[in-house]
């Protein structure tokens, strides 16, 4: 089973991948780790496949590139290696119960670069966990944004995407309950947006009004790499994704 962690810089992808992998191993599952970040320096897990063995941002910067240019160039150079990387991931998937893919810290270098699209298209039914942090959820239309962005990831990569609110250990119970209601009850969110007079509020209201018609049956996961909350749910979702009798509702 393949689970890829995707999210903006600072959303906790690498930490969660490492902690979730340890949880799975304690549960008796065999786990393979894949690092696709050419710029990361330290990892909380030992990767079975590491793209830094092919190219690193540091090496490219020594050629005179700036940090951002080096990141883009690193994935340009990885394009020709996609078949080999995909083949290795497939082999790991056949050998282990779970293959956890840790994507680049700069999400756009994977999501908007041909490298990420080609790689995901080469894999068999990968599940994507889209991580976002509580600090970006300040206004009602922020919740609309994260739910639709998960759909856009699904559309771009062609892979079922599960929204994951990470770092819930930083929230009080009442804050978490509020986030749950906005993220899970689309009718409630739509009703709140109806009274938002801003253009953003109007746009979000119209989008959320037809969200149930286009959204696949996926539930939101609430997770923490610190205390392990949400790990059992994420494990269940991954299993259901690959089980012909299950769905993600």
UniProtKB/TrEMBL annotation:
<protein>
    <submittedName>
        <fullName>GTPase</fullName>
    </submittedName>
</protein>
<comment type="similarity">
    <text>Belongs to the GPN-loop GTPase family.</text>
</comment>
<dbReference type="InterPro" id="IPR004130">
    <property type="entry name" value="Gpn"/>
</dbReference>
<dbReference type="GO" id="GO:0003924">
    <property type="term" value="F:GTPase activity"/>
</dbReference>
<keyword id="KW-0378">Hydrolase</keyword>
<dbReference type="Pfam" id="PF03029">
    <property type="entry name" value="ATP_bind_1"/>
</dbReference>
<keyword id="KW-0342">GTP-binding</keyword>
<dbReference type="GO" id="GO:0005525">
    <property type="term" value="F:GTP binding"/>
</dbReference>
<keyword id="KW-0547">Nucleotide-binding</keyword>
<dbReference type="InterPro" id="IPR027417">
    <property type="entry name" value="P-loop_NTPase"/>
</dbReference>
